[in-house]
Amino acid sequence: MRNSSLHRSSPTPRFAGRVVRPVAGALLVTALVLTSWVMAGTSQVAAEGETSPAVACAYLQGRVPPAVIQAAMANPDKVYGYLQSTNPNRRGDSYNPPRTSLTLANPNLVWNALSNPVIFKAGCPRPAGMP
Hints:
The model is unreliable at 27-49 (pLDDT under 50). The protein is of the alpha+beta class. Strands 1-2-3 form a three-stranded mixed β-sheet, with helices on one face. 19% of the residues lie in helices and 8% in strands.
């Protein structure tokens, strides 16, 4: 035998007679929270005249063809990493500087256009065996 209180024939909501009224300031608080959350995720972008100059690390001379270095320095925005933050998931500040140094993806290996290309990093790494 079925329990009549659990299985009703009409699908009426349990709180049908109760009227829920929204709180007047709830929409404003929600908008402020969402705005601050969105603003915290944005990164600081340098103005047009404030771009950091790209530099090539000294150890690239003799390890990478000069044409590759010249092409990367002429069009740095075409090379991976230029002016990105060191950690893209954080806001840009003095502890998260932009990548402006041209270096190899792995400085301990020889240059190869496919497996070890030139990229931009924040600062020049020192390869193993170099003073």
